[in-house]
Amino acid sequence: MPIEYERKGKIGYFTIRNGSVNPMTPAMHKQLYGHMLEFLADDNVHVGIMQGAGDRAFSAGDDIKTPYAKFDTPMAELEYYLAPKHRMETKEPDTFSWSRDVLALDRFKPIIAAVRGYCFGQGMIYLSHLTDIRVASEDAKFGFPEIAYGMGGAGGSTRLSRFIPHTVAMEMLLTGDPLDAQQALRANLVNAVVPADQVLAKAEAYAERIARHPLVALRVEMEASLRGMDMSRQGALDHAKNLYRMQRLAYGGEERVKEFLYKQD
């Protein structure tokens, strides 16, 4: 399958595998949706790693050679995009609609990106939405080349200016020119830059440090952080406080919290 998922201990591995630069097809977005549901539902998995197969690309983006579906009428196209029909597709998808469902998932488990080579277009969109810590190879490149083909909107899909300096985001989006690994590191788009043969090992080191913690604590930290970004300051404080109270109740009292937090495997 072009999108592979496997579990090793407490780590779930997502691998984008489609030729030398791993372009995304409509079917791959549907596969990723299914794998994400499996990952999120499995309480034995505490953290994920997302990577591209080979050393040329994480993903060069959506496959521009894939023809878009043809609809008989504008109303048929409207109904397709507004109604949840595509969730029940039995045939291979012929539009990129499933990518919207992937991005709309409530994802409260951390995922680490292991990026080698190109991370362009839809690859960058998934990087921004689906990963929380990012390791890049020295030859990695990050960008949105679609504007050169008359296609804009990546800034809205990624809310890029919320995560890196607005000036850097607009340079990427409006020129279509990519950032190299060191530029991405300076812009806080990635956490670490290492030689290509060390990318996965570095990502796994991050994953092991995360996986040692209780799943419920990871879940609460992820939800408090992600939802808090879209709330007012007071709303974020109240939401985090309520989540923390629920944790304490679940653990059964302060003495059990202390025992739980400092328990050694």
TrEMBL record:
SUPFAM superfamilies: ClpP/crotonase. It comes from Neoaquamicrobium sediminum. Signal peptide: none annotated. It comes from the Bacteria. CDD domains: crotonase-like (cd06558). The lineage of its organism: Bacteria, Pseudomonadati, Pseudomonadota, Alphaproteobacteria, Hyphomicrobiales. This is Enoyl-CoA hydratase/isomerase family protein. InterPro entries: ClpP/crotonase-like_dom_sf, Enoyl-CoA_hydra/iso.
